[in-house]
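Good morning C.,

I know you're traveling, so I'll keep this short. The sequence:
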Amino acid sequence: MRVVEKPRRQVKQAGVSLVETLVALALGLAMVSVAFNLYVSNRSVFRQIEAMTRLQESASIATALLETDIRQAAGTLCRNHAPMTSLLSATNNYWESVESFGLVGLRGYESSTTDPIVGTSRIAGDSISIVSDNAGAVARVIAPATHASSQDGLAGSYTFQVDTVDGFQAGTVALACDYERAVLFQITRVSNTTPPTIELQAGGGSAVYPGNCGVLMKRLGGTGEGISPLDGNWSCTSANTTLYKQGSVYPFGPGSMVGEHTFHHWYIGRNASGGSSLYRRSMDYETNGSVKLGDSKEMVENVTDMQIEYLPGFLYTGYPFNAYYKTAAQISGFPRYTYRSVIAVRIVLTLTSPDKLGLAASNVASAATYTVPINVAIRSRMPGVVRR
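The C-alpha cells, ready to paste straight into the viewer:
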C-alpha cells in the first residue's frame, strides 16, 4: 500500500511593500533636499565671503596706490615751495602746474563736468590729476653746471653733471632744484658718460616738444618792480612774455637735485569684461621726445564709484581755512580757494562685485558692495617736511 504524502505548504517570501518603498523614497528625497539646500546655502555664503574678500583686497590696493600718489602731490626733492621758474614753451594739464607759488600739484574734476583728460572714457565718479617731481627718476648734481647762452638767454644750452641718468631720456620733463630755486624744463639730451650729463637746449639743437623757451633760471628785477630779483616765480607762457628777457643764468651746483616730472590721472572706466575699474593715465614720450598722454592702464577692478573732496589750508601752514572738505566745484568756484592751498584729500571708493550673490530682503539677487574712505595729507604742504 502506497502512502500518499501531503503536498508541502509554499512559504511566503518576505519583501518591501509599496508603502515602505514610498516612505523610503520620501525620506530619501527629504534628506537629499536638505543636503542640497545646505550645499547651496554654504556655497552662496562662501561666494559672498570670497567676493567680499576680493573687494577688500582690491580696496587695499586702490588705497595704497592713491595714498602714495596723493601724498607726493606738488612734491619736489628740495625744500618746500622754492621760487620756481618754468622754461617750458607750452603747458597743459599734464606738464603744467607752475603758478605763482610753485607746483599746483593736483586738480579735481567732478562727475557732473567733462573730464578734460579722458573725456567720455570716464563712466562714473569724480577724477583727479596729480603732478609731482619726487615720485619718478632722481639724479644728484655732483659738479657745477655749465652753460652757454645768447639772444638774452633765449638760445643756448645748460648742462648738469649728475651721478646717474637712469630713468631719464630725451624729452623727459624734469625739475631741477636746490634750497633757493626750482626750474621746470624739458631734457634735450642725456649722455651716459663719465660723469653722466643731462642737458637742456633752447633756440636750436635736438628737437623736443614742447621744448624750452630759454636757458634763464633767475629773473632780474625791473625798474620799479616790487618783486625781489631772487623771486623767480614766472614761466615762459605767462602773460608778460618780456619777463624772461630780463633774466640771468642760475648756477645749480653740487647737492642740487633733478627729479622727473610725473603726471597721473585717476578715473573710473569700462574694462574689457564690461565692468568698471579704476584706471590711471600717465605722461609718456614719443620716440622723438615729444610729451604725450600714454595709454590708460587698469589698476584695480570692480571700482564703481569715486567721490573726492579737498581740504583747503591757509598759506600752506597746514591750518585749514574751514574745518571741512570742499568739492572740486567749490574749489574752482570761489577765488579764495585754489588747488595750491589744498593740504589734504578725502576719497570715498565704492567697489561692487560683478556677480549677483545671495538674496536681498526683497528676495532679489544683489551684488556685494564695499565702501572705503581714504584720507591723505599732502606731504610737501605739511610743516617741516622737505624731502620724500
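Safe travels,
E.
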